[in-house]
Design brief:
Elements: E1 6-10, H1 17-28, E2 31-34, H2 35-48, H3 56-65, E3 68-71, E4 78-81, E5 84-85, H4 93-103, H5 106-119, E6 125-129, H6 132-136, E7 142-147, H7 150-164, H8 170-186, E8 199-202, H9 208-224
Parallel strand pairs: 1-6, 1-7, 2-6, 7-8
Antiparallel strand pairs: 3-4, 4-5
EC number: 2.7.4.25
Pfam families: Cytidylate_kin
Subcellular location: Cytoplasm
Length: 225
């Protein structure tokens, strides 16, 4: 593909967005941008600093004071906050349970969206999140809305947790994911929803490679227009 595209991938928690986006970006030779990691990094720092994740003013001040870096590596994306590698720390249950509250703060979302647009200035990016196609990159050439059943998403999260040594039941994970879905879709600031021009993909019965290849096929079609 001669000309790079902006590819926006949105969807609910544990839909496989980050995994698919990383593979897609790698195969296309594009830059991968994990916006969820940015919100998690802010949440992690807020919890470390004893800042209320529902306090928009305090979170905005903190966001102005810290530096969040997303660095590619052979083992995946490295996330740093003020030089500290927090790649694993931001995936803790404590951060996971609070990140939706952080992401619901209107001015925090505005500033994050500005930072994300700056990262996507150069064509040839795959960016995933909750409001990429609707708010962050509304003019992206390819928009994907990816989802799966709650049970399937809980199963994927369960497998991820087992690899990290986190022991939580499927019932707990289903409840957590349902709560996050409700919070993400009902928040006032840039709620999770499918962009009008996004392609809907239900990944429940698809493999990771099948989903990535499907997106790449759509990207190739967009490039040929």
């Amino acid at each position: 593909m001669e000309k790079g595209l902006q590819i926006a991938i949105d969807g609910p928690a544990a839909a496989g967005k980050s995994t698919i986006a990383k593979i897609t970006a790698s195969k296309l030779g594009y830059t991968y941008i994990d916006t969820g990691a940015m919100y998690r990094a802010l949440t992690y720092k807020a919890l470390q600093s004893h800042i209320n994740v529902n306090d928009d003013d305090a979170l905005l001040k903190l966001l102005n004071e810290i530096t969040i870096e997303l660095q590619p590596s052979e083992d995946g994306q490295i996330v740093k906050v003020d030089g500290e590698d927090v790649t694993e720390a931001i995936r803790s249950q404590e951060v996971t349970s609070q990140v939706s509250a952080t992401a619901a703060q209107p001015r925090v979302r505005e500033m994050m969206a500005d930072k994300q647009r700056q990262l996507a200035n150069a064509a040839g990016v795959v960016m995933d999140g909750r409001d990429i196609g609707t708010a962050v990159l509304p003019n992206a050439e390819l928009k994907i809305f990816m989802t799966a059943s709650v049970e399937e998403r809980a199963s994927r999260r369960y497998e991820e947790n087992m690899k990290r040594g986190i022991n939580r039941s499927m019932e707990e994970l289903c409840q957590d994911i349902s709560r996050r879905d409700k919070a993400d879709t009902e928040r006032a600031a840039s709620p999770l929803k499918q962009a009008a021009d996004a392609i809907y993909i239900d990944t429940t019965s698809m493999t990771i490679e099948e989903v990535a290849d499907t997106i790449i096929q759509f990207a190739e079609k967009r490039r040929s227009l």
